[in-house]
Amino acid sequence: MLIGRMFSYPDAQRYRLGINFAQITVNLGFMADNPNGEGGPKYFPNSVHGPGQNLSAAQSVFHVNGIVDRFDTVDDLDDNYRLARLYLYKDLTSEHRRRVARNLGGSLAGARRDIAGRAIRNMFLRITPEFGKQVRDDMLEDIASNDISND
């Protein structure tokens, strides 16, 4: 029974928490000193010197009746935003779409200006220019209303 549990418990944690489950502070053990990125972002790419790309983990090229290699869809940016466009314009009413833009703009109002601008340019304007402009206008409106209320 013990041997079975030695396998199943870590396996369950791996399934529930992901492959890095052993790096979660509570799983490191008693008195573990883990800086956990020292408050920096946990995503890549980022603007504040968070984790970077690990090129040593690149996939290797090998032959299997031809060449198999990594395929990036960077050139087909439209495909990356197709589902968001379908969701906003096929599944949501104009009122719901307006609320989504208002919520996104309100959230971006609290972000650094350069990051908010990049989010609008690189995400919301690519969904549709109309939606990106609405998010930007809502963000600017929220910033202006906060500036007025702080005076």
The gist of it:
The protein is mainly alpha-helical and 151 residues long.
Report on the structure:
- It is a single chain.
- Among the domains are: 1-29, no CATH class; 77-150, no CATH class.
- A two-stranded antiparallel ribbon has the order 1-2.
- It has 6 helices and 2 strands; from the N terminus they run H-H-E-E-H-H-H-H.
- The chain has helices at 2-17, 25-28, 77-91, 94-108, 113-127, 129-150; strands spanning 62-63, 67-68.
- The radius of gyration is 22 Å and the shape is extended.
- The model has no long low-confidence stretch (mean pLDDT 83).
- The chain has 151 residues and is mostly helical.
- The N and C termini lie far apart (67 Å).
- 58% of the residues lie in helices and 3% in strands.
- Strand 1 (62-63) and strand 2 form a beta hairpin.
